[in-house]
Amino acid sequence: MEKYEHKYGAEQIQVLEGLEAVRKRPGMYIGSTSVRGLHHCVYEIVDNGVDEALAGYCTEINVVIEKGNIISVTDNGRGIPVEIHPKTHISTAETVYTVLHAGGKFGGDSGYKVSGGLHGVGASVVNALSTWTEVTIKRDGGIFFMRFEKGKTVQKLERIGDSKETGTKVRFLADDTIFESLNYDYEVLEKRFREIAFLTKGLKITIEDQREETPKKAEFCYEGGLISFVEYLNKNKEKLHKSPIYIEKDGEVPVEIAIQYTSSYSENIYTFVNNINTIEGGTHLEGFKRSLTKVFNDYARSHNILKEKDNNLQGEDIREGITAVVSVKVKEPQFEGQTKTKLGNSEVTGVVQSMVNEALSTFLEENPSVAKAILEKCISASRAREAARKARELVRKKSNLETSTLPGKLADCSSKNPDECEVYIVEGDSAGGSAKQGRDRKFQAILPLWGKMLNVEKARADKIYGNDKLNPVIVAVGAGIGAEFDITKIRYGKVIIMADADVDGAHIRTLLLTFFFRYMRPLIENGNVYLAQPPLYKLSKKGMEDRYCYTDEDLEKAYKELEEKGITRDQLGLQRYKGLGEMNPEQLWETTMNPETRILVKVTMDDAQKADEIFTLLMGDEVEPRREFIQANAKYVKNLDI
To answer: What's the alpha-carbon Rg for the chain, to the nearest Å?
Structure first.
């Protein structure tokens, strides 16, 4: 190998002073410089106030998004210490904001028993990634102020007044040369702070957005803690028992759990460690699931609900319809998994398991009517699971993919490479016919659907297998459903829903998305589901190439551009497409299926909790919440054909 000629001595070894390392490699400290990383900076500052609340010293945190995307976070905790630090020989407050990994959260004799924050990078990193930062501290009878620019101190800590109050106020402007955007998403921050308020009983958090003419503001404070959290999650669901089951135990690993069963068929368990949402679960979830299965089976056996001849209920039977929040506090959490949000501390499994065993067993003995209602649902789920297994086996026999027995209406593509293959799930035989004629047969498959589709929000898995509308989708995708879904077996890299741009089309899209979310969720998480965007209008004129418009805004823009070329509106023919079937194969290809010209919308799921809430709201049994949602959001709806 040819040598790279360059000097390699002491002068080539870079030593990054202070916080330069953070500015050089921001992704190492906050995950990314995208909007997600931007929000992470806010969380880091807020988490300092939350840690004060967990220690019992803070009752209120106020967050403001000021004009110009300046963030202000104020808490009424003890205030950052202001005395000179013995090691750095500068004020402790300045040390916290200028020295990496300086804080009150390291080691056994730290200022906090447990603390939030996934990376623990805290104030110094936020300071390093900001154009400027201002910190005001109320403590020891005084008001103290300091200012930084790009992580460097420009105004050392000085006393500027007197106060009997305590607390810390941090204002910062993130550096637009580092972040891709400084546009904070109010709803993302609002959701996170609501979550923190649920997890920190009694803490009041307010968020205000002052960027618009009419400011937005929300306030969260929940004395009920996790009980309030579960009630909030289930607000649009039919409950099997009125009040959530609440379990709490202090100790070396404090554990807090709230559980409530609903009539739905989905399982929703949310887990947290030190207020961090552990979306990949971990040892605390494992302990909870094991205990849940053991306790309900033991109770069913001891009360003769399960007979000697009956098999034990499986975990999935017992978790059907459950909404639970599991929150643990761990001194030194170890995180693993792809997104570093999976708890790895092995000792937590046993702690959670033994605690739930004891507390849940006692609850069931003391509340036999609740125990009976839950177990009836569990046994019903067990029977449905067995029916689903038989139906699944029947489907497998009928449609073994190895023998190429695919759905009769599926027009498959010639390529067998999932990375380049895509399947269009098309509403109606008419549009399906046009799509089959217009497609590129090498990589595009067409699966027409007809008639009313099953709403899976109101059905169990045993009703899905063999369903003449959904079974063709299951077989075509080729990866199974539910717990058996295997993303590595999908036959198409893109699953594209193509429906009319009207109310019926929107309904079909929602039904299919509900199905994918409930039974093929990895398909959405992996980014394999898309929505086709057929045009709404066609502008035509003799001697002019047809122009397609996908929105009302597109149409107005097209009119203006053509007017500049001397073509008036009166000279143009306007066609409003009511459905895909109105387009001939060439038009459908050019507007909706040609990779060079089509518009596809990828379906993503950044927030599973919010997605679950929306699907429950729109597709569930509760009518009143759905009516309220539609009334509240009707003003945002366009192109509605009634």
So the answer is: 29
> How far apart, in Å, do the first and last CA atoms of the chain sit?
71
On whether the pTM is more than 0.70, the answer is yes
DSSP 85: P
Q: Which of 298, 420, 504, 525 is catalytic?
A: 504
Cβ atoms of 58 and 77 closer than 8 Å: yes
Mean pLDDT of 516-534: 90
Which pLDDT band holds residue 449 (cuts at 50, 70, 90)? confident
Residue 586 annotated among the catalytic residues of the structure: no
Query: Among the options 47, 500, 612, 613, which is catalytic?
Result: 500
Q: Is the dihedral of CA 628, 631, 635, 640 positive or negative?
A: positive
Asked if 502 is an active-site residue, the reply is: yes
CA dihedral defined by 622, 626, 629, 633, rounded to 10 degrees?
170
User: What is the spatial distance between Cα 533 and Cα 592, in angstroms, rounded to a whole number?
Assistant: 6
Phi, psi of 122 (to 5 degrees): 60, -150
Paired tokens of 167 = 């607390």
C-alpha span between 268 and 261 (Å, rounded):
10
User: Per-residue pLDDT tens for 361-387?
Assistant: 999 999 999 999 999 999 999 998 888
pLDDT in tens, 587-614: 899 999 999 989 898 888 765 556 666 6
Question: Concatenated DSSP letters for 305-372?
Answer: SS-TTSPPPPHHHHTTTEEEEEEE--SS--EESTTS-EE--THHHHHHHHHHHHHHHHHHHH-HHHHH
Structural domains in the chain plus CATH codes: 20-220 (3.30.565.10), 226-386 (3.30.230.10), 403-534+602-636 (3.40.50.670)
CA nearest neighbour of 275 among 195, 341, 190, 204: 195
Which of 320, 427, 457, 462 is catalytic? The answer is 427
DSSP 438-459: HS-TTTEEEEEE-SPPP-GGG-
Query: What span, in angstroms and rounded, lies between the C-alpha atoms of 385 and 327?
Result: 30
Residues 6+ apart with CB under 8 A from 11: none
Residue 234 or residue 121, greater confidence: 234
Burial-class residue 393 by CB neighbours within 10 Å (0-12, 13-18, 19+): exposed
Mark whether 468 is an active-site residue: no
Residue recorded with tokens 């949402």: 277
378-390 as b/e, with b when 16 or more CB fall inside 10 Å?
Answer: bbebbebbeebee
Candidates 502, 546, 582, 590; catalytic one:
502
Whether residue 389 has pLDDT greater than 60? yes
Beta pairing partners, 152: 149
Task: Clarify whether 504 is annotated catalytic.
Answer: yes
Q: How many CA atoms lie within 13 A of 606 on its CB side?
A: 7
